[in-house]
Description:
Blueprint: H1 2-9, H2 11-29, H3 34-42, E1 46-52, E2 56-65, E3 68-79, H4 88-95, H5 100-106, E4 110-123, E5 140-153, E6 156-167, E7 183-184
Parallel strand pairs: 4-7
Antiparallel strand pairs: 1-2, 2-3, 3-6, 4-5, 5-6
Amino acid sequence: MRVFGLIKLHYPLFFLVFLGSPFLVSCAMAPPLNSERIEQRYGNYGIEVLQSGNKRRLSSLYSVSDGQKTMRTLALVEFTAADDPHLAHEHQRILGGESIGAVFKEEGWIIDKISLRYCLSRFDLQSMPELSRMRLNHPATLATRSYVFRVQKAETSINYATITEIHHPDYLQAADLTREDLADC
């Protein structure tokens, strides 16, 4: 009974803590965006859209050093919910060249990445010429991650895109490259 009395006495505070705690936990647990990790690691970040359409996008997430861009991630995006009216504003910003994660974060969406596959893949410039922007010797074995990019706001949860990222080896931590953690593609 004493607990209920305390709750009743401090109801407004209890109400805010109770309702706000799931949001605070999800924010605290949300991993940094790819763009944020690149900026943290290299001191800067940029995005260059290489190809774009309403249903697909190919982009280079890069850092700049000594005036030269180095691709840190090649992102292949399949927009699975491009026509969803809940996302019309965000999708237009993304089609305009903005970072997918940054747009949804700024618009107040909770972001979830549902992993589909994480593996090492061998690439050459004939099959993927865009990878020349990584400034590596080719062929190269690169970490590749595929995931569903899901966003949520209030009662709305939408699988916005399926994204495959091909990462520059310098961008990953050594532990990310261990064979035990990665499947073969």
